Amino acid sequence: MRSLSFLVICFAFIACGDKKASFVATLSSETNRTRTIEIIKENLVKNKFEIISESVNPTIAKPNSALRPQTIISFENKAYAQMLLVCNPSMGLDIPFKIAVWDNYEGVTKVNYINPEYLSLTHNIKDKACIEIINRTKISIEKALDGVAK
Length: 150
Known about the structure:
Blueprint: H1 2-16, E1 24-28, H2 33-46, E2 50-57, E3 70-76, H3 78-87, E4 97-103, E5 109-114, H4 116-122, H5 128-144
Antiparallel strand pairs: 1-5, 2-3, 3-4, 4-5
Helix pairs in contact: 2-5, 3-5, 4-5
């Protein structure tokens, strides 16, 4: 069982190759972390998402630590969430959706989120109506990032 898990993990990394960004989108922000978070939250609400939570992971106090301050914004559209859960109850593992906002060592604010299209693969969603909901979610997340990314 352990070797099977190892093979699955290895395959996942190999399969990602240079297209890793297609699963996890990474953007650079034009503003600082605080303003980036404000813009994202405002845009999410405009696009009919509810902010579920905002959590901050503080910097580790060790010198030369690789961990940087990071804010995770959890959000959902209840109607989309209900429909996606009908499509496959395992979607509950990825709902609410999340956006991570953090600063790199050069002081550039970065934004990460999982591409909702990837979730259709992860949860084996093939129904056209469900795929349409995932596409609408992707478009809404991209609209929420308007005015943030370079």
